Amino acid sequence: MPGPKGDAGGIRGVQVKTAPFSGSSGGVMCDPGRIATGGGYKVNNGNGTVYQSLPVFGTDNLPDGWEIAVATGGSASGTIYVICAPWG
């Protein structure tokens, strides 16, 4: 038998952080006490192809930020984004 209906859930205090990148890689980290829930990038110019866009994991094995990498021989510049939420 199911229990009583609980309160509606949600996340408060979500933060989007950005950082510029130039060259073959870059990253942006969440503030302490927050974890990365997603991320991405925007290329403004360059001749490189981004082949990796993934979370950065800290020593606690939690996603602490976001990083990108440009294919070998290429170069690009733009902005990296990470969406951070409170943790703990």
Q: What are the main properties of this structure?
A:
mainly beta; 3-stranded antiparallel β-sheet; 6 strands
Largest sheet features: 3 strands, antiparallel
Approximate shape? elongated
Distance between the termini: 31 Å
Mean pLDDT: 92
Number of domains: 1
The helix/strand series, from N terminus to C terminus, equals EEEEEE
Coarse structural class: mainly beta
- Per DSSP, what share of the residues sits in E-state strands of 2 or more residues? over 45%
Strand order of the largest sheet: 1-6-3
> What share of residues is helical?
under 10%
Low-confidence stretches: none
User: How many β-strand runs?
Assistant: 6
- Number of distinct helices: 0
Radius of gyration: 17 Å
Walk me through this protein's architecture.
The chain has 88 residues and is mainly β. It has one domain. It is built from no helices and 6 strands. A hairpin with a 5-residue loop joins strand 4 (50-57) and strand 5 (63-70).
Could you provide a short overview of the structure?
This protein has 88 residues and is an all-beta fold. It has strands at 15-23, 25-29, 34-46, 50-57, 63-70, 76-86.
Topology:
Layout: E1 15-23, E2 25-29, E3 34-46, E4 50-57, E5 63-70, E6 76-86
Antiparallel strand pairs: 1-6, 2-5, 3-6, 4-5
